[in-house]
């Protein structure tokens, strides 16, 4: 799985924006690994639809933050990308929480990937025939019928 992300913020009271993409590798797709979702991964600001946050409003006014989900693509979809608005941060605010969320997502995905890999392939071919007891029981009747058919009865 390849995860790439970028955080951009315009000058002023604009909120930072996280753009990320995740792409599964061919062997992960082949293993039919299910989607992994972190419900509480990255904080989301109130009024996340707005690209800005003025002093004293929303997260800068003490309003509670919510959560963005992070998810991997399923083996059917193969790749996923999203854009998330992050809470406003002052200079030097840092984004270690974002990196930590992607590390958690990768860790959880690797657990699922390992379990999928451990589900070993099978190829079972089997057959059953009559038991010797049954063969012996009907053998005399079958031989008699064949003999009589051969001589025209």
Q: Could you provide a short overview of the structure?
A:
The protein has one domain (2-118). It is 31% helix and 23% strand. The chain contains three helices and five strands; from the N terminus they run ββαβββαα.
What series of H and E elements makes up the topology?
A: EEHEEEHH
End-to-end CA span? 74 Å
Query: What proportion strand?
Result: 15-25%
What Rg, in angstroms, do the CA atoms define? Answer: 32 Å
Largest sheet: 3 strands, antiparallel
Helix content: 25-40%
Number of helices: 3
Low-confidence stretches: none
Descriptive report:
The chain is α+β, with helices and mostly antiparallel strands. It has one domain (2-118). Helix content is 31%, strand content 23%. It has 3 helices and 5 strands. The chain has a 3-stranded antiparallel β-sheet, with no helix packed on it. Strands 3-4 form a two-stranded antiparallel sheet. A hairpin with an 8-residue loop joins strand 1 and strand 2 (17-23). The radius of gyration is 32 Å and the shape is rod-shaped. The model has no long low-confidence stretch (mean pLDDT 91).
Indicate the topology.
Elements: E1 2-8, E2 17-23, H1 26-30, E3 37-44, E4 66-71, E5 79-85, H2 96-118, H3 132-150
Antiparallel strand pairs: 1-2, 2-5, 3-4
List keywords for this structure.
153 residues, alpha+beta, three-stranded antiparallel beta sheet, two-stranded antiparallel sheet
């Amino acid at each position: 799985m390849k995860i790439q992300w970028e955080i951009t913020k315009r000058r002023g009271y604009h909120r930072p924006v996280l753009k990320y993409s995740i792409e599964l590798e061919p062997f992960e797709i082949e293993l039919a690994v299910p989607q992994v979702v972190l419900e509480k991964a990255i904080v989301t600001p109130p009024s996340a639809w707005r690209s800005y946050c003025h002093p004293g409003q929303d997260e800068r006014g003490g309003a509670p933050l919510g959560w963005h989900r992070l998810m991997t693509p399923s083996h059917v979809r193969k790749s996923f990308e999203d854009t998330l608005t992050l809470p406003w941060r002052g200079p030097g605010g840092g984004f270690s929480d974002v990196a930590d969320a992607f590390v958690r997502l990768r860790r959880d995905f690797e657990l699922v990937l390992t379990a999928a890999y451990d589900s070993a392939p099978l190829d079972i071919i089997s057959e059953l025939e009559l038991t010797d007891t049954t063969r012996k029981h009907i053998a005399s009747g079958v031989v008699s019928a064949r003999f009589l058919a051969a001589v025209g009865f």
